[in-house]
């Protein structure tokens, strides 16, 4: 088991948003978080990313509690700067991981749009650009919050390939969604 | 180091692309300084006497202008999460932001201060002391402002809270900066004042990024 969470609980202010979340995901495994709006799916992802700290419970990756640089996340915001071109938006991620940004764009069907300012992108194209940034990361743990939001069928298929490559390399993936994702053999965890 | 350069490149590229921040701050600086002769009167001796004070206060206010968007834009669109997840130390992110703030705000204002000081009849022989002090002080101010911008992140009415946090802490900079220029204008040595400004910068150089980094982590966790 690479990702190991035991009895995680999280307060936001006075409100308990997550209670007793436990999960274990093996190398190459995927976990889908489901549940109604407000069930704490996004909070759970921020917790697994190490952005939020759990108020109770333990979280380890490869037996290590330090999550710095372990996780890459696609939040519900795309974090795309409209003033920069697609390639410039990816420049930081590419510089950190040393991977090839144009190849990542091509994998998500944006190969021809590398030098187009992101403000001209549609919502689905921005989502794909955010996914391209995710795929540039060397992080072994991918956290996806509604990854298919605004994507067409062809793009969902491309996303499926990118995710399959990540899992084949031993990566771990946790996704929160209401829709069906191209994730074969994924475990499911329902949040109440 | 790669990460630091990458963040700095990204910041400068966005400042260049949007093209609004630096000219707006410079224009603000110019207008505020130009208002004083209109309000006080054009007497050259009087203007020369208060020139350092005018320029220092105007520079301080102009430095505040871009601060409330320094982290807020990245916080709102999710970019801050991406930066924090990248594994780069939060203090390094904060330091890159502070340096970008100084390069796009502090440095241009130091350059613009020279013609404005001459316009206010400030004696030319004291100009290096004024500009040197302003260079040291504006760098300290960028670091101080970065901490405040990180602290108010996510707070309601953060834009109003920000000047209230920064301005009291910036008083030593204004005092020693203006006093140094005054001393040079009177034919005395500006060195003690400049050294105190340098000391402020030396102290805030390690402390400010650490404090701002911790504040960024808190803002993301909230």
Commentary on this structure:
- The complex is a heterodimer of chains A (192) and B (222).
- Chain A is globular and about 45 Å long.
- In chain A, helix 2 packs parallel to helix 4 and helix 3 packs across helix 4.
- The longest helix of chain A is centred in the last third of the chain and has 16 residues.
- Chain A is built from 5 helices and 8 strands; from the N terminus they run E-E-E-H-E-E-H-H-H-E-H-E-E.
- In chain A, strands 5-6-7-3-8 form a 5-stranded parallel beta sheet, sandwiched between helices. Chain A has a 3-stranded antiparallel beta sheet with strand order 2-1-4, with helices on one face.
- Chain B is 83% helix and 0% strand.
- Chain B has 10 helices and no strands.
- Chain B is elongated.
- At the A-B interface, strand 5 and helix 2 of A face helix 1 and helix 5 of B.
Integer average pLDDT of chain B:
93
Query: Runs of chain A with pLDDT <50, length 5+?
Result: none
Helix content of chain A: 25-40%
Largest sheet of chain A: 5 strands, parallel
The helix tally of chain B amounts to 10
Q: What is the subunit arrangement here?
A: heterodimer
Distance between the termini of chain A: 24 Å
Would you count the extended β strands of chain B for me? 0
Major sheet summary line of chain B: none
Mean pLDDT of chain A: 90
Which structural category fits the helices and strands of chain A? alpha/beta
Percentage of residues in strands of chain B: under 5%
Output the keywords:
heterodimer; A: 192 residues; alpha/beta; five-stranded parallel β-sheet; three-stranded antiparallel β-sheet; 5 helices; 8 strands; globular; B: 222 residues; mainly alpha; 10 helices; elongated
